[in-house]
Amino acid sequence: MASGDEVLTQRRFGETERTDNWWSHPLVVLIGLSLFVVYGLFRTVYPVFVPEAQAGIYHESLLSPFYSPLLFAEEPVTHVVFGTFPEWWPQLVRSPAILILWAPLGLRLTCYYYRKAYYRAFFQDPTACAVSEPRDDYAGETGLLRFQNVHRYFLYLGILFIVMLSFEAIRALFWNVEAGQPFWTGDLQVRVGTLVLMLNVFLLAGYTFGCHSLRYLIGGNRRCFSCPNNPHNGGDGRAISRRYGLWKGVTKLNVNHATWAWFSLFMVAFADFYVWMVSIGVWPDYTVIAF
Amino acid sequence: MSTQTEGQPPAEEATTEEQSDEPTGDRDPETDTTTYTLEVYRGDGEDGELVTYDVPIQAGMVLLDALHWIQANRQPDLAVRWNCKSGRCGSCSMEIDGMPSLSCMKRMSEYDADTPIRVTPMRAFPVVKDLVCDVSWNYEVNAEIEPFTPAPDADFTFYQPDVERSREFRRCIECFLCQDVCHVLREHDKKDAYAGPRYLVRSAGLHFHPEDTADRTEWMKEDAGVGYCNITHCCSDVCPEDIEITDNAIIPQKERVVDEYYDPLAQIKRKLSDVWS
Questions:
Q1: A140, B232: Cβ pair inside 8 Å?
Q2: Domain residue limits, chain A
Q3: ipTM strictly over 0.90?
Q4: Which residues contact B132 (CB under 8 A, 6 or more apart)?
Q5: DSSP code of B191?
Q6: Taking a C-beta distance cutoff of 8 angstroms, is the pair B241, B171 a contact?
Q7: How confident is the model at residue A239 (pLDDT cuts 50, 70, 90)?
Q8: Adjacent-strand bridge partners of A187
Q9: Beta carbons of B263 and A152 less than 8 Å apart
Q10: Which of A32, A69, A76, B76 registers the highest number of CB atoms within 10 A of its CB?
Q11: Are strands B127-129 and B132-133 parallel, antiparallel or unpaired?
């Protein structure tokens, strides 16, 4: 008879008695996130090496979400917020994406869903439930990973980005704007690019407003939704706090947070690719409705 | 690994079930059974081995029935905890093909008759005998939690949504499957630093009771070690009561710790409200 410890202890990395395809989900996550990271890095540094007009940052009224808001640009285009890059700006970091992408990246990096996804897929911590890990030492989020607690601050920035991306989606309704004129003086047209940017904002908003931190901050931090309204507690007798409605709304999105996360991740990359392809003339940007 | 041979099932196990409960594999028309192979851990924490049993399975049988058949026909001393056989008592927790499960809730028809089913005790706790573990550590953790503390003049008038929020956590049957699957306890044995999902659920059940006034935030951070949870959702995946342990119990309490210890704006807001009040 062997020692019980020998039979029951899983020591080697990946050792498990599970008989299902436990490795398939983390593998899909690994591939999906890696593809996005590679594409995102490529598009972030692309404008450093390619003239801005060919870099796929913008096309007429369309601005790629990878570069939105366009804080600085090489040319004084309508989308730009502060103007052209200062002369002293180092050439190696002369990409509008470098200035802004840290914020949505931070939101996703510290997101409760993505934490699960990359702890499993990249750090094998664990790869899947009841599967042995590669490392013996473990500090969870008590050591260096305490920085994950900053998530709610990235959420605030994420909401700001939703506002700015919504503005760019509205701008994409107006075309053939004369130089120096406000964007709303252009022709009102819905093009495929307009729909792409709007769908992108919709999916990003679904992801951002289903955030676990928002769910907590908007009402989940309350111990009781109805107690403050009880006449006993000096309330107005309303059945339930308005916070409850907000909390329920965020909860509905939060239940499918992972789905929103993946669809919005795919869509933001596709929206960037679409603007890039249209800007270099590979794809036509068809007009759907012209008013 | 030793082997026991097939025999007849006890008469009381013969039941007629709907088609979906039919066991897979070739059936013996005389006994109306299909033979499954179970590899069951026999021994204690010191010495043990996997013993193979061929078990005749009839439609509708669950894995606990198969273990009872072994007890009745092959090994009367096979140790297995059970009570209600309906997923309510949380006694028959074990690992079936490596996944923490309630054996009374696992229908044999879910398994392939041609592949041996491995049945072992929970790995996060010391084995007493065969499939029975010593789970007493859990009760020691439970005793550390500040109990329900209503205000002296508490008014227990509140509405259904508030009842439902804390009721989810009270569905827990203390099967400890979440503790067993949690890699912090199972793989890293951090029992001295982390209370485990079960007790984060209990704490949430107390905290979200509308009339509870106790502040368990410091306990949550320092003693319960909520920071050790890296939200892999395994606890939610194995919960037989479908409690959303990670999303509804652990993350809100992680956020509460952030409020208290890591969010400077929340700290300033608290100080300002103290000044105003």
A1: no
A2: 4-290
A3: yes
A4: B79, B80, B81, B121
A5: T
A6: yes
A7: low
A8: A175
A9: yes
A10: A69
A11: antiparallel
- CATH number, position B126: 3.10.20.30
Cβ-nearest to B49 among A5, A7, A230: A7
Q: Return the residue of A nearest to B230 by Cα.
A: A140
Residues from chain A that touch B238, judged by Cβ atoms under 8 A, are 129
CB B6, CB B35: distance < 8 Å: yes
Domain of B214, CATH number, reads 1.10.1060.10
Distance between CA atoms of residues B173 and B190, nearest Å: 23
B123 and B140 both lie in a single domain:
no
Strands B117-120 and B33-43: parallel
Task: Quote the minimal CA–CA distance from B10 to chain A in Å.
Answer: 30
Q: A115 near A123, Cβ under 8 Å?
A: no
Q: Do B95 and B142 fall into the same domain?
A: no
Distance CA A174, CA A185 (A): 7
What span, in angstroms and rounded, lies between the C-alpha atoms of A147 and A124? 20
Question: How many domains, chain B?
Answer: 2
- B161 vs A: CB within 8 A: yes
What radius of gyration, in Å, describes the C-alpha atoms of chain B?
A: 23
Q: Which of A193, A205, A179, A195 is nearest to A58 (CA)?
A: A193
CA distances to A37, A134, A157, A272 from A269, rounded to whole Å, are 10, 32, 19, 5
* Cross-chain residue pair A129–B157, CB shorter than 8 Å: no
Where helices occur in chain B by DSSP H, the ranges are 63-73, 136-144, 160-170, 177-181, 183-186, 197-207, 217-218, 234-238, 251-257, 264-276
How many whole angstroms separate alpha carbon A130 and alpha carbon B181?
6
How many angstroms separate the Cα of B243 from the Cα of each of A53, B72, B174, B177, B235? 53, 35, 12, 12, 9
In this predicted structure, the answer to whether residue A189 has a pLDDT above a threshold of 90 is yes
Gap from B162 CA to chain A (nearest CA, Å): 6
Domain extent for B184? 136-276
- pTM, entire model: 0.91
Give percent above pLDDT 90 in chain B.
Answer: 77
> In this predicted model, what pLDDT tens digit does every residue of B207-231 receive, in sequence order?
999 889 999 999 999 999 999 999 9
The pair of structure tokens assigned to A119 is 């702890």
Q: Is A31:B77 a contact under the CB 8 Å cutoff?
A: no
Distance of CA A28 to the CA centre of its chain: 19
